[in-house]
Amino acid sequence: MIIINNVSKTYARGRVKAVNSINLEVKKGEIFGFLGPNGAGKTTTIKMITGILKPDEGQIFINGINVVSEPIKAKKQIGFVPDNPEIFNRLTGIEYLNFIADIYEVDGKQRYKKINELAEIFEIKDALNSSIGSYSHGMKQKLIIIGALIHNPPVWILDEPLVGLDPKAAFLLKEMMKKHADNGNTVFFSTHIMEVAERLCDRIGIIKKGEIIFTGTIDELRQIREENDSLENLFLELVDNE
Amino acid sequence: MNKAISTVKFYINSVFGFSGLVRDLKYNKKKAVKTLGLLGLILYSFSGLIAMFTAFNLKMYDLLKPINQQGLVVLNTIIISTAFTFFIGILTVIATYFLNQEGDIILSLPLKAWNLFLAKFTISFLSEALFAFVIMATGIIVYGIKNGEGVLYYINSLLITLTIPIIPLVIGYFIITPIMKFGKLLKKKDFVMYISGFLALGLGVLFQYFTNQMTNFDKNPELIMQKLTAPNGLIDLTSKLYYPAAIAAKAIINNGTLESFVYLLIFIAIAVGALVLLLTTMSNIYYDTLIGSTEVQKNVKRMDEKELKKTTIKRNLLITFIDRELKLMNREPVYFINGPMVIFLLPIIMGASLFFQNNSILFIIKKLMNHPDFSYYLNLISIGIIVFLGASTSIAATCISREGRAFEFIKSLPINPKLYITAKIIHGLMFGILAAAIILIMDIAFFKIDTISLLIILITSIIILTMIFILEVFAELKWPKLNWDNPQKAIKQNINGVVGIFGTMGIVGLFGALIVKFNIKSNGLLIALIVIPLIISVILYQKLLSYADKRFYEIEI
């Protein structure tokens, strides 16, 4: 469960307000899609949830744990897939996964089971012994996804996770997200692909210029707009009109 | 041609960040002051070299004046400057050969191969021009003032100075480009980078030989002068081997005459001709080496079930962090060559120095060995060298900056900052111990050092290094340089790294000077060198842990 209370964040010594007093609640067992135009504040919000950035104001709770006051405890609840998988290019895939598993204190048996299973599904098992620098963008993305799931996190956060994935891997990822939420976990992801959000999300949140302009189900959005249109059109109208 | 100029401008801005500095001067004065401070520090690091060359040129001028051969000061400065820009130039060529902005975007632009090669050449040229300027100034100013030269002399000298690095760099690229092509054929770019690093090591030894010749000057100036100035002497021979130097000298010395102007034009024409030759013959090969330079060779050895099971075991977290530090540092050629390799490189250069000066320094050492306080001084010198070597790896001084943008990902993980920081200090100390081992082996081999001294040297140097590393990590936490596009910037253009090396050098030098000046000969000093840094280290480490616990979460890119 993620709770965001009155969170604000500014850049450039307060000159640029990236996120302005946002409130959000994402429940257990829910897939939540975070939508918004470029520069709206999606990644800033995700970075604050994952403890990368410190909010200027407000509080964020992960399963009831405050991210700022108890960062290690809160982060243990999270599995995070960043928007850019360019990290630790000099390590091999297996070295990276072992590093992440050590950080999350995953025992040998569980990590073997998880790596074996997920690397097989994503078809990167043969590449685990190669350095990450030799991977394609999609392969790096798959590796990071495996790393994020290695400790079976109660809260899975993904920033633009489908970028660079081939259709099969994208399909598999969507299935995994569903399964993860079905198991009572929280899934929070940002995307620009409206079809994905429409098909996958239990609820969505739309952010524009640092402010949340809508949260709810897609049906609720249709009711508010009094239109039975696709999410893409609803989103465009909402973002343009607000 | 416009495309070539635009590419050159783009490269200059992205590597040196001149436009960034101008912008900072307007909008971010604090950052601009930091950048200018770093520049000042780099220039200051030349001060020893400047003093050495100036003293040499002053003596040389006074000795040559009576025989009306003082013009040789200028010729000699040109030769030294050329040699210097060649040796340092090779390193620059290697260091700047692959830059990140040359990723797929630059290669996909409709640019000709020579456009990119010229832009890259300009980058190397600008750094070398600075070296050439510093060295040339020492001879040109000495000769200019003593000979009462006019404005034209200085204008000619400036033009010649700016032209000097071109030919050595052209030669450098003629050597390195085919090596890189060979590396590409072998599909082992990293391996070639390491090999080039060792090539630089060889050149360093050679350079040591030349500077030793100059320091010997103090002992017997007349003999050295004879060696340099006699027909077929060093200067005569070098200018015959490298005739452009003689042309450049004539252009400066005979300033104001038509002959001088013609020589100036000839020198510039030779340099430009060499550059054109390089661009026409090597551009395609250079371009070819860039294509796929971002590709990394895949390990084709697949992991079987048994192996996978064997590797997936839970480890102690501190060991996990240290293991990651070691792998990320040692596998990145830029980090390894500028970091841990220094531990091997400096002792080899020092060894070469002893070898080339076998008549002087070794004789002094042998004489000193009979001195009753020899063992005391040897202990102190060994400690000084180990401390300097340990700090020269820049491991602790660049430990956060090397993470780059991946630091954000690190922050998203449930990492205990105290453990994370401790691993970085231990990483630095591991190489400190390695440096100590190398120096102690040398001490045992050359001076038959006893076990107690060995232990004193080891313990003292490691405790002092611990204190230095803690201070360096403090600086890194406070001012990390995480926003970079080329790993060079994290280690070589990082003010913390530069301060770490020169600061340690300064402290070691200051201590040495104080000990010599006040003739401190007491075992109490050795005890103080253990106890004081130990107390400081314990206090600082506690402070560092609590600072890291807070600061880790505040660092934002």
TrEMBL record, chain A:
Gene3D superfamilies: P-loop containing nucleotide triphosphate hydrolases (3.40.50.300). Residues 2-234 form the ABC transporter domain. Keywords: ATP-binding, Nucleotide-binding, Transport. PANTHER family: ABC TRANSPORTER ATP-BINDING PROTEIN ALBC-RELATED (PTHR42939:SF1). Transmembrane segments: none annotated. InterPro entries: AAA+_ATPase (IPR003593), ABC_transporter-like_ATP-bd (IPR003439), ABC_transporter-like_CS (IPR017871), ABC_Transporter_VariousFunc (IPR051782), P-loop_NTPase (IPR027417). Pfam families: ABC_tran. This is ABC transporter, ATP-binding protein. GO terms for molecular function: ATP binding; ATP hydrolysis activity.
UniProtKB/TrEMBL annotation, chain B:
It comes from the Bacteria. The chain crosses the membrane at residues 36-58, 78-100, 121-145, 151-179, 191-210, 261-280, 334-356, 376-400, 421-446, 452-474, 495-516, 522-541. Keywords: Membrane, Transmembrane, Transmembrane helix. InterPro entries: ABC_tran_2. This is ABC-2 type transport system permease protein. It comes from Caloramator australicus RC3.
